[in-house]
Amino acid sequence: MMKKILLWTLAVLLAAAAMIYQRSTGPTYEFKGYLESNGNSHKYELLRSQETTQGAKIELPRIDDAEYNATLHYKRYRTKDAITKLDFSLDENEKFTAQLPVQPAAGKMEYFITGSIDGQEFNIPEKGEENIVLRYKDPVSDFILVPHVVMMIIVIIFGIRAGLSAVFDHDSMRRWTVTAFTAMTIGGMILGPLVQKSAFGEYWTGFPFGGDFTDNKMLIMWVAWALALAIIGFKPKKKENISRAAVLAAAVVMTVVYLIPHSMGGSTLDYDQVDQGIDPKEAIKTGAEK
């Protein structure tokens, strides 16, 4: 019993670490930092993802005890557009914001911020660093998104648990392998394309139709678990060495894939085509196409 508790604890901790790493290093995670004023630190979290229902509101912390101003500089991503400048101001909710223009799904804006606090200038990001990039996406129903996220959490937890079972407790590795593969099939290969369709207009933009990293990562993990299940079968074998190796390999592949930041190489609107009059829905590129 104690061994099982330890294995489950380790599986949950490893899964949580992988998910946190993937989320925090992904290109849609907020750009975070601090502004300093009179010995106080004021945290900001700048958007890098936004639904197409409205333009993204870029918010800075309010600093009322200083002479404080800020300007948003932006343009469409990977274009030769002139940079537009917009001063931050208090909105209807008394938040210090400047709003980017809304874009079609997969449209990206790049931006940076300049300003001063009591005469001390600041730049976000710092000079010499790349501009912040924000991508727009169409809304995704919670009826699709929530089950997708839940299933992918199940995949990483039970997948790691299956891998640990292959090493320390092979009597239960089939049970957890079947669970991981089932969750991957439902969450990744069924609900995943539905999320993609809702957000960017296409069910599948990975191999062989495109170079979307997220779809390709999903495919790699699904194939790894499908192969593991095909090798181990549903009944114990007299010699389990090959079965244990297959399950462990699938768990390692899955963990490595989870360490690749989410949404990298994803859908991006080709503004050159849009400017030529092509429907934005037909001008979305992915990974290898860009």
Short description:
The protein has helices at 2-25, 142-168, 173-200, 213-232, 241-258, 271-275; strands at 31-37, 40-46, 49-51, 57-60, 68-76, 84-87, 89-90, 96-99, 108-117, 120-124, 132-137, 268-269, 284-285. It has 290 residues and is α+β, with helices and mostly antiparallel strands.
Note the main attributes of this structure.
alpha+beta, 290 residues, 2 domains, 42% helix, 6 helices, 22% strand, Immunoglobulin-like, 6-stranded mixed β-sheet
What's the helix and strand layout?
Elements lengths: L1 H24 L5 E7 L2 E7 L2 E3 L5 E4 L7 E9 L7 E4 L1 E2 L5 E4 L8 E10 L2 E5 L7 E6 L4 H27 L4 H28 L12 H20 L8 H18 L9 E2 L1 H5 L8 E2 L5
Parallel strand pairs: 3-11
Antiparallel strand pairs: 1-2, 4-8, 5-6, 5-9, 7-8, 9-10, 9-11, 12-13
Low-pLDDT residue spans = none
Number of strand segments: 13
Rg, Å, rounded: 23 Å
Morphology call: elongated
Structural class: alpha+beta
What is the succession of H and E elements? Answer: HEEEEEEEEEEEHHHHEHE
As a percent range, the share of helical residues equals 40-55%
Rounded mean pLDDT is 92
Distance between the termini: 52 Å
Overall number of domains: 2
Number of helices: 6
Largest sheet: 6 strands, mixed
**Approximate strand percentage:** 15-25%
